[in-house]
Amino acid sequence: MIAGNAWVDALARMGIIAVAVPLAVIILSYVERKVIGRLQMRLGPMRVGPYGALQGVADTIKLLTKEDLRPQTADRWTFELAPFVVVVPVFLAFVTLPFTSEAFVRNLGLGLFYIVAVSSLSIVGFVMAGWGSDNKYALLGGVRAAAQLISYEIPLVMAVLAVAMVGQSLNLTELVNGQGRVPYIVWQPLPFLIFIVAGLAELYRQPFDIPVAESEVVGGPFVEYSGIRWSMFQMAEFINMVLISVLASLIFLGGWNWPLGNGAGTWLQVIWIVLKSSAFILFFMWMRASLPRLRIDQMMAFCWQVLLPFAFLQIIINGLVLVYDWPDWVLGVLSGTAALAAAYLTYRGARQAAVPASPRLHRVGSVL
Amino acid sequence: MLGILKAIGTTARAAMRKPATVQYPTQKKELPHRSRGLPVLLWDFEVDEPFCTGCQVCARYCPVDCMTVTMKDNPKYAEGKSKRRKIIDRFYIDYARCMRCDICVEVCNFDAIVMNNTWSGVELSRYDRRDLVLDLPALLADHKTGQMADPFREPMGVAHSGWAPKQRSEDEKEAVAATEEGGEG
User: Which of A68, A194, A269, B32 can bridge A227 by disulfide, Cβ–Cβ 3.0-4.6 Å?
Assistant: First the structure.
C-alpha cells in the first residue's frame, strides 16, 4: 500500500503507471533502433547524446511539436478519437499486470481474462482510423488489422486458457505463485510457442506487419496521421510489446517467482521480471530484423490451420490430464510432442506450397 | 520454415560483426588515389611558384566554360630563378559549373592542374553560390599547404611535360651541369 485510503492508493499507482509507461516507450524506441541497427551491421542512432542515448527524447519533442494534420474529407470525430481508442485499452491492461508480488494497481481475481478482454478492444481503434481517414490505403490497412488481430486473438486466448487450466486460476499472482519450482513453459511448451507467435501477430510487427505494411498500404491506418496522434499509435505498439512480454514472462517463465521464490526481496523480483521480459522484447526485435513479411493468405492460413487446431488440441490434452489426474510430466510430454507435430506439419506444408503442382496451377490458400 | 532459423542465424552473426557504418563528418573513409574531385592547381616547390603558365589551353577546352585564365611575364624568369617565361596571373574556376570531366587535366601541357583527390575536392557546401568561384590562392592552397600530399597525375602526363622534375642520379646531375656550362661558354 502506498497510501492509507484505497482510492488514493489506486490513483497513486495509476499515476506511476501513467508516467513509467511512456518513459519505457521512449527508452524502447531508442533500444529498438539500436538493436535492429546492430543486427543489420549498422550503428543505429549515434548523434543525439552519447551513443545517441537522447534520440528517444529528441523524437518525442519532434512528434509533440509537429502539426496535427487532419484531411479535409476525414470523418472528424472518428479520425480524432481513433488513437485514443487504440492506446487507452493498452493502458487499461496495465491495471492488473503485476510486476512483482507487490507492484500492481489492483490484483483482480479474473486478471488474465480482463487483460485479454481489454487489449482486444484496440481493434476498434484501427478500424476507426481506417474508416475515418477517408483514404483507400488506410481503409485497407484497417480491414487487414481487423482480420489479423481478431484471428490471432483466438489462439492467443486459447494458449492463455491452457495455462490457466494448469494453474487452476485466472489470477495472475496465483498463476505466478503456482510456478515456484517449475515454470509452466516446461508443462506447456506448445501454448508457449502459440502465445509467442500469436503475440507477435498481435503486435503487428514484422513478419506480421501486414496491416501497416509500408510497401503495400503505406502505413495502413496511420497514413493520414501525424505528430502526436501518430505517436499515440506508435506508443500503443510499444506498450503492447511490453504487455505481451511481461505477460509471457509471468505465465510461462514464472515471473518474479521462479527460480528465486516469493521470499526474494522486491528489487530482486524486479530484476528478474525485467530480465525475463527484456529477453522477450529483444526476441521480438530480433524477429523484426530477421524475417520478411508474410503474405496475407499465409498469415491467415497459419492462424486457422495450424495455431488454432493445436491450441484446441492442447486444451483437450489439458482437460484429459486434469480429469484423470495424471502426473504433471505427462502434460509436458504430450504438449512437447504436439509442439513437434505442429512444427513438422508447418515445415511440410511450407515445402509443399513452395513447389507448385504445375506452373499454371498455384495452390492459392494452402500456404503452409 | 528452416529458412526462418537460417534468417535468425544470419542476423545473429551480423550482430557479432563490426558495424560497417562510418560516422561521416567526424570519421572519413580514405579516398582512392584516383578519386576525381574538382580541379585544383599544383605548386612547384622547387622554384616556389605555380606550375601553371597561364597558357589557357584548359580554359579553351573546358566544355562548360568554368575557367578564366590570364597570363603575365614571370618576374622570377627575369631574375634567372625560373625557366618559365610566363606565369599565371589570375585563375578562376567556377566549381558550381565544373562537371569534373577531367579534360583540363588531359590537355594541360605542364601538369599544372589535377583533379583534387582529397575530401576538400568533394565537400562543396557553401552558404553562398558565389563562394564556389575559387581564385588563384584558393586553387593552389590544397597542394601548397600539403593538404593534398599525393596528387594523382596521369602517368603519360609526366613524360610529355617539359617541366616535371626528372629523377636523376648524382652522376647524371654533374654531367648535365657540365654540358650546360660548356654550352653557355
Answer: A68
Nearest to A130 by CA among A140, A120, A122: A140
> In chain A, what is the straight-line distance between the N-terminal and C-terminal CA atoms, in Å?
51
A271: cell is: 530484476
What ipTM does this complex have? 0.73
pLDDT at A252 over 60: yes
- Residue in chain B nearest A294 by alpha carbon: B4
Nearest CA in chain B to A367: B1
One-letter identity of residue A104: F
Please state, in angstroms and rounded to a whole number, the distance separating the CA atoms of residues A181 and A173.
Answer: 15
Alpha-carbon torsion angle A120, A252, A305, B7, nearest 10: 100
Q: What is the pLDDT of residues A183-212, one digit of tens each?
A: 888 888 899 999 999 999 988 888 888 888
pLDDT digits (tens, 9 = 90+) for A277-332: 999 999 999 999 888 888 888 888 888 988 999 999 999 999 998 898 888 888 88
Pick from B36, B43, B149, B169: which is nearest to B103 by CA?
A: B36
Give the residue on A whose Cα is nearest the Cα of B25: A47
Chain B residues in contact with A292 by the CB 8 A cut-off are: 7
| Best residue of B2, B5, B8 to probe chain A, by most A CBs closer than 10 Å | B8
A41 touches chain B (CB under 8 A): yes
β-bridge partners, A107: none
Q: Report CB contact under 8 Å: B14, A42.
A: no
Cβ–Cβ under 8 Å, residues A156 and A197: no
Nearest CB to B15: which of A38, A46, A292? Answer: A38
CA distance A54 to A48: 5
Could you give the CA distance from residue A108 to residue A118 in angstroms, rounded to a whole number? 13
Inter-chain residue contact B10 with A290, CB threshold 8 Å: yes
Grid cell of A346 as nine digits: 508447418
How high is the pLDDT of residue A166? 87
**Cell triple for residue A22?**
511512456
- Determine, for residues B17 and A289 on separate chains, whether the beta-carbon distance falls below 8 Å: no
Q: Is the pLDDT of residue B35 over 70?
A: yes
Residues A148 and A198: their CA atoms lie apart, in Å, by: 10
Pair B6, A35: CB distance under 8 Å: no
DSSP chain B: -HHHHHHHHHHHHHHHSPP----TTTS-PPPPTT----EEE-EETTTTEES-----HHHHH-TT--EEEEEEE-HHHHTTS-S-SEEEEEEEEETTT-----HHHHH-TT--EEE--SGGGT----SSGGGGEE-HHHHHHHHHTTSS-S----HHHHHH-TTSPP---HHHHHHHHHHHHHHH-
Question: Which pTM was predicted?
Answer: 0.80
Q: Residue B103 is placed in which grid cell?
A: 579534360
C-alpha to C-alpha distance for B62 and B5, rounded to whole angstroms:
58
Cell of A328: 504433471
